[in-house]
Amino acid sequence: MATLPEKATHRQTRTFNRQLVLRAVYDQAQISRAEIARRTGLTRTSVSALISALLEDGLVEEVGRGPSTGGKAPILIRVRPDARHAIGLDLGDTTFSGALVDLRGRVVASARMPVSGRNGIDAVAAVLDLISELLRRNGTSPLLGVGIGAPGVVDSRTGTVRWAVGLDWEQLPLDSLVRERLGVPVVVANDSQAAALAEITYGSVPWRSNLVVIRVARGVGAGIILDGKLHQGDGAGAGEIGHMTLVRAADPAAAQCHCGRSGCLETVASMGAMVAAAKRLAPRIADEDALVDAFHRGDDVARGVVERGAEALGDGIAALISVLNVGQILLIGPATRLGPAWLAAVRRQAERSALPLLARDATIDLGEARENDVVIGASAMLITRELGLSLVR
Ligand SMILES: [Zn+2]
Questions:
Q1: How much distance in Å is there from the Cα of 189 to the middle of ligand 1?
Q2: Tens-place pLDDT, residues 218-252
Q3: Long-range contacts of 200-205 (CB under 8 A, 24+ apart)
């Protein structure tokens, strides 16, 4: 009996070291055993044993020899991208989209499902159908599981969608519903938070341990990373900045928000709101493409609407900077197509509204434009969790 805790501790140490080694390989295109030992602080013997186990599991492979540093040229190791697949889903407004993704975040196959008008348990059935479709298309790579990016307030610790108004979901245990039906590991996250994780997992912009990634799409939401970890808050609603009230409800400019209130940030700053506002003034600006084109052409209507949206977003960012004192803000999502002029307007307003000392320290930049960002991010959450690849660097 007395030996049990010791064995358990030994097993934990081995699991921890294995994840450390896998992370070191994952972080590099290819790496030698000696370099892994140097980066992880483990002995050469331990690293060799752990790499042997990873080779046996097929997670890594040897890819020839690197340059010699005097002695024998070292064998290089890399992650086998196709060793496992994950499924990522984006439960968008009118369409659910999903993809089979490899360990490097590359899409292997994708599928879409129109869901206009489907909500409640019917929308859950659509989720299961879409996953089944992607499962059918998976080849021989073992499936790690399913990551789901859902709109609304989502508690990814319990896999519960606490509230998603468009889908008419309240306290929906989506994680266990999918897990029980399909028998695979599942992670459920807010769509903006998932997209933020795609940015920091696969994006090329260097990120610091405190940052906020804001996604401006049909709505506005953020992933808040503090000390290298996604901060979800006590009720999983951290980052729901789209529903900060920036226009007083009594103001005639305060538009109705789908959350039931009026004057929310996303009624002005989201791509959806900017398109709607432009369309009211100039019916030819009927969709996102038309708005982006008109804005780049210098069209007055488009400029007015986008500048108003950028100002509201700048005010929202100033509030975040004041509360969190984060030094790095990245903007992602379809609105980044509005480019440097939009970014400049956002920066200008954030500087005007935040405490000058804090505003000076903060950078606001565009992240990497990425189609499928929610799908990729949701699968990244699943992959990093299942393989124990902590996002902390
Ligand atoms: Zn709202």
A1: 19
A2: 999 999 999 888 898 988 889 999 999 987 766 77
A3: 200/225, 200/391, 201/105, 201/377, 201/380, 201/384, 201/391, 202/104, 202/105, 202/370, 202/376, 202/380, 203/330, 203/367, 203/368, 203/370, 204/368, 205/330, 205/365, 205/367, 205/368
Ligand 1 centroid to residue 207 C-alpha, Å: 29
| Beta-carbon count within 10 A of 277 CB | 22
**Ligand 1 center–CA 249 separation, angstroms:** 11
E-state strands within 306-379: 328-332, 363-366
In this predicted structure, what is the pLDDT of residue 313?
A: 97
Give the Å distance between the CA of 234 and the centre of ligand 1: 20
Q: Is 64 buried (19+), middle (13-18) or exposed (0-12) by CB count in 10 A? A: exposed
For residue 380 the two structure tokens come to 């990244």
What average pLDDT does the structure give for the chain? 91
Separation of 337 CA from ligand 1 center, angstroms?
24
Measured CA angle at 117 (ends 115, 123), to 5 deg? 55
Nearest to 190 by CA among 259, 260, 239: 239
**Ligand 1 mean position to 259 CA, how many Å?**
4
**Alpha-carbon gap, residue 61 to 78, rounded angstroms:** 6
- Cα 354 to its chain centre, rounded Å, is 26
Residues with CB in 5 Å of ion ligand 1:
243, 257, 259, 264
- What is the CA angle 227-340-93, rounded to 5? 70
241 CA distance to ligand 1 middle (Å): 9
- Predicted confidence band of residue 5 (pLDDT cuts 50, 70, 90): low
Task: Report how far ligand 1's centroid is from the alpha carbon of 303 (Å).
Answer: 24
pLDDT in tens, 171-209: 999 999 999 998 999 999 999 999 999 988 888 888 888
pLDDT at residue 251, as a whole number: 73
CA of 380 to the centre of ligand 1 (A): 28
Distance of CA 294 from the midpoint of ligand 1 (Å) = 27
d(CA 189, CA 231): 12
Q: Which amino acid is at 327?
A: G
Helices and strands counted in the chain (H then E):
13, 16
Q: Which is more confidently placed, 185 or 253?
A: 185
